[in-house]
């Protein structure tokens, strides 16, 4: 398993999913992730009938990376 953070340039946000590895992939804003971390019931249906995205369990490395990103959202600027 590998865990890391990455920076994506605006305009280069297309995601190509290898369906043998992942079922789906999407980008989420900082505010959306903050809201997901605050949710008591991650699978509760929203008023519009949809379900919010879920986060990995607190013991998972992925959860810790997401939490770190929310707590320290600043990144070095990208080269032009």
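^ Assign residues to that structure.
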């Amino acid at each position: 398993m590998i865990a890391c953070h990455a920076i994506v340039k605006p305009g280069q946000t297309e995601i190509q999913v290898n369906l043998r590895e992942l079922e789906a992939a999407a980008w989420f804003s900082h505010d959306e992730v903050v809201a997901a971390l605050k949710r008591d019931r991650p699978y509760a249906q929203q008023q519009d009938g949809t379900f919010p995205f879920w986060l990995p369990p607190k013991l998972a490395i992925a959860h810790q990376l997401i939490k770190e990103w929310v707590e320290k959202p600043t990144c070095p600027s990208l080269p032009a």
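The mean pLDDT is 79.
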